[in-house]
Amino acid sequence: MTIAFLDHHLDNWHAKVFLGLLRERGHDVVAYESDPKEGDWCADHNVTRVGSPDEALEIADAVMVLAPDNIDAHLDLTFAVLAAGKPVWVDKQLAPTLDHSLRIVRMAEYHGTPLTCASSLSHAAELEEALEAINGRVEEGVFSGYGEWHRYGVHTIAMALRAIPSRVETIDCRFTPHVKQVELGFEDGRCAFLTVVAGKNSSAAFPWRFALRSGEEYVHGTVTRFDEFYERECEAILRAFETRETMRHDEMLDTVRILENVAAVSS
């Protein structure tokens, strides 16, 4: 399979990691970047550079929209390829706003284009093992993570929505300049509690952790096997491309709705 990377600039960690994982699995990559940095990432990594998304579509079987540090570029990058009907995966979140995210979803629906979107934390090995150990319904969950909300909140949200795959009905937030505490109420009555902390040593104080209650006990863990969640995400992306799977749109939209809602009330 040939996969097109569409990016704001390719000189980022996700492009490097996914390139290596895809090549290990026997896939080819072509790449387009709208705002390249100095140097030539494609030449340095022996990747075919294309001059436009249209040129990428002529070669590729599926598309990965990266731009993990430039989410505001997602709308233009996805709109450039969705009409072709080839499977599209979007990194982290669809767009910075619910309005832009809805436009992406509606365009994918109109053209019958398979669309998926995820943070790598939704594929954390430790979380998957905990869900397998429970082998049943998670009654509620408590999740923590670190970093600035607008850049890293998506990862803690991803763990919560993976553990409790139900539509989010209510979003409540308490906050300080450094701490966001979010309560999610799901339409089936369950709840998730998220804490995301920014600060110089926040990754040590508040690593990505989860505690899932089933009955009267909690299954809990800390995400430490970072290489594995990228590997698992890559496998999930390839499965979706091969099967033309479309992710639940409400899950993709709920992610953006939570991010946007908390940012609005805490700004």
Give a description of the structure.
This protein starts with a strand and ends with a helix. It folds into 2 domains: 2-119, NAD(P)-binding Rossmann-like Domain (Rossmann fold); 125-224, Dihydrodipicolinate Reductase, domain 2. The strands form 2 sheets. A 6-stranded parallel β-sheet has the order 3-2-1-4-5-6, sandwiched between helices. A 6-stranded mixed β-sheet has the order 8-9-10-7-11-12. It contains 10 helices and 12 strands. The chain has 267 residues and is an alpha/beta fold. Helix 5 links the parallel strand 5 and strand 6 (115-118). Helix 5 (98-111) packs antiparallel against helix 10 (249-266) and helix 7 (149-163) packs across helix 10 (249-266).
Specify the CATH class of the largest domain. Alpha Beta
Query: What is the SS-derived class?
Result: alpha/beta
Number of domains: 2
At the fourth level of CATH, the homologous superfamily of the largest domain is NAD(P)-binding Rossmann-like Domain
Provide a count of the helices.
Answer: 10
Fold-level CATH name of the largest domain? Rossmann fold
The total beta strand count reads: 12
Strand order of the largest sheet: 3-2-1-4-5-6
N→C terminal distance: 44 Å
Q: What average pLDDT do the residues reach?
A: 97
Q: Biggest sheet, in brief?
A: 6 strands, parallel
How much of the sequence lies in strands comes to 25-35%
Element-by-element helix/strand order: EHEHEHEHEHEHEHEEEHEEHH
Question: What gross morphology would you assign?
Answer: globular
